[in-house]
């Protein structure tokens, strides 16, 4: 009888040990830090400087480049640069050229199939307006600020507000955006709508690159091995 009890105890112990050995502890996975970068270009249209460019159908056409980074599913940051071809705002301004550098943030709303994105746009812009000032028919009386018949450059900071939309396909998207830029006019020293801007272009995504990897650092790459003690 004593042998039977010992046998049963050994059997129970062996069963418990087998179950313990079969139990697999899975490693804890780090959260996925995924960011999609996009690089695109398109054609832009702008009034450049609304209080000066009052001529109808006189918008400037330009070339727009954009770099976007989408963090997660809903947040996007972007940096854009636009260079415009020259226009005349006759008879006061001739050979006007302009450039814009801007940084924006957006919150994305997606369709069910994730092909179409809609998003509000908000950000800051640095704008350059450069042209030959004749002073002719200058109703703003800018001759009190600038000398007539010379090249004048005006730099101004703007607050961007607008809307954008993407139509996505595999590896890229067609993007559209409309923005208004609010700034302080040189002529009237007032806060006003300085520019109305539109762009349409094509952007391609670079998947797999992450901001986490870019800024993780190089401590593991250049770690020094200590000599082993003898």
Could you explain the architecture of this structure?
- The chain is mainly β.
- 11% of the residues lie in helices and 53% in strands.
- It has two helices and ten strands.
- Strand 8 and strand 9 form a beta hairpin.
- The two termini are 61 Å apart.
| Helical residues, percent | 10-25%
Poorly predicted ranges (pLDDT <50, ≥5 residues)?
A: 220-226
Q: Report the radius of gyration as a whole number of Å.
A: 31 Å
What is the chain-wise order of helices and strands? Answer: HEEEEEEEEEEH
For this entry, what is the oligomeric state of its chains? single chain
Major sheet characteristics: 8 strands, antiparallel, barrel
Query: Judging from the principal axes of the Cα atoms, what is the shape?
Result: elongated
Trace the largest sheet across and list its strands: 1-2-3-5-7-8-9-10
Cα separation of the termini = 61 Å
Number of helices: 2
Let me know the number of strands: 10
Strand content: over 45%
Structural class: mainly beta
- pLDDT averaged residue by residue: 84
In short:
The protein has 230 residues and is mainly beta. The chain contains 2 helices and 10 strands, in the order H-E-E-E-E-E-E-E-E-E-E-H. It has helices at residues 2-22, 211-214, and strands at 35-46, 60-71, 75-84, 87-89, 93-107, 109-110, 116-133, 150-169, 172-184, 191-206.
């Amino acid at each position: 009888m004593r042998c039977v009890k010992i046998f049963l105890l050994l059997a129970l112990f062996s069963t418990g040990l087998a179950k313990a050995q079969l139990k697999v502890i899975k490693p804890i996975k780090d959260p996925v830090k995924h960011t999609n970068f996009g690089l695109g270009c398109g054609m832009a249209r702008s009034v450049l400087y609304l209080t000066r460019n009052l001529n109808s159908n006189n918008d400037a056409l330009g070339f727009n480049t954009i770099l976007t980074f989408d963090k997660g599913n809903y947040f996007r940051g972007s940096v854009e640069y636009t260079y415009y071809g020259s226009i005349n705002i006759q008879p006061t301004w001739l050979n006007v050229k302009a450039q814009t550098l801007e940084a924006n943030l957006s919150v994305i709303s997606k369709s069910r199939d994730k092909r179409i994105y809609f998003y509000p746009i908000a950000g800051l812009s640095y704008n350059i307006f450069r042209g030959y000032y004749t002073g002719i028919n200058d109703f703003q009386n800018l001759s009190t600020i600038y000398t007539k018949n010379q090249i004048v450059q005006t730099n101004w900071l703007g607050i961007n507000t607008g809307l954008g939309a993407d139509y996505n396909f595999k590896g890229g998207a067609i993007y559209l955006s409309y923005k208004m830029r609010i700034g302080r006019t040189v002529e009237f020293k007032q806060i006003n709508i300085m520019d109305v801007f539109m762009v349409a272009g094509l952007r391609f995504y670079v998947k797999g690159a992450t901001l986490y990897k870019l800024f993780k650092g190089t401590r593991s790459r250049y770690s020094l091995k200590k000599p082993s003690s003898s």
